[in-house]
Amino acid sequence: MTSIFFQALAEPDFHDFRNEVKEVFSIAIAEHFGLSRDGNFFEDDDIDGMLRDPKSAVYAIYVDGRRAGGVALHIDPESLRNRMDLFYFYPGFHNQGLGGRVWKMIEEMYPETVVWELFTPYFEKRNIHFYVNKCGFRIVEFFCRHHADPAVKQQPEPFHNEYFRFEKQMKV
């Protein structure tokens, strides 16, 4: 069986993590919108804000000893409402059932979580399927120009402004 483990990352590792996130996420945006993959679709400050948050837990994901992706979590020990901010695998690790195993491991790492929350763009059908049908999340909100997220500065590109908010109730 394939072995999976997490390696906690710290500030010196964030530059590489940020660049990996931008590269992997840009693939889907470029393919969906017919844009060049060398476009800069994400602001460094946005990603750095997630990574440097005092409540962040950032991990590299290894599969059979090879770095396969990463995850950035926001862990709130007071409210026990935790959030997955970033989650990615390099394309060579897609469609192998790894995402579900990794998600189960994350849930086991934070067993006191009451609610998990995450966001994903509207066009990422594969991710939406994964979160709803494989991981048990529910879509609880859709942000768009008619219902903008007050916490996010609106951008001209729809992939920045149109996305779902998901929740998974763990405990009542």
TrEMBL record:
Coiled coil: none annotated. It comes from the Bacteria. PROSITE patterns: GNAT. InterPro entries: Acyl_CoA_acyltransferase, GNAT_dom. Signal peptide: none annotated. Pfam families: Acetyltransf_1. It comes from Bacteroides gallinaceum. This is GNAT family N-acetyltransferase. Residues 4-158 form the N-acetyltransferase domain.
